[in-house]
Protein: CASP-like protein
Organism: Tagetes erecta
Amino acid sequence: MEGESTTINVTETPKERKGKAPLLATPPGSNIIKPAAQKAPKGGYKRGLAIFDVVLRIAGIATALGAAIAMGSTEQTLPFFTQFFQFKAQFDDIPSFTFFVIANSITAAYLALTIPISIVCIVRPHLVAPRVILIFLDSVMVALTTSAAGGAASIVYLAHNGNSDANWPAICQQFNDFCQEVSGAVVASFLTVVVLMVLVILSAFSL
């Protein structure tokens, strides 16, 4: 019959479906490139503290070694003497000064030997064991250096002021150069104590 149209439905077989790929449809999220979140590097401040630790140890070596050398080289002989006596002052005449030289020499050697441990903390700032070791050893050095500086300071005080109750006269009026040198050595030793205390605090913050 004219005017009539027929529609023919063509069905695809499963084999034909397998050979066709979708042009536009993509699995959700398969081709989406997400920018990688950049994380801030960890341990940055710990590395900075470790660098400062090395600088302080070098400064502590200078102050401790300077204190030991200044005290160990202290000597003064008065220009007048008698037939039986010569008026002379040396650091080894006083046991506290001898202990002072030994203690500050040990402290300077210790600070030099622990610089490699501080360098390890710079390279690997997250390590805990080196910090714990430094805290313990630095605390021991604080006690040693403080005792040496305190003992020497008491002798220097007596040399400057004397003690009227014990009838100990001040000797710095005669041995002026000797007293000035030992006083400078004591000041340098107390600076070493301050450096060691700051090192303990830095190691504690780095844990």
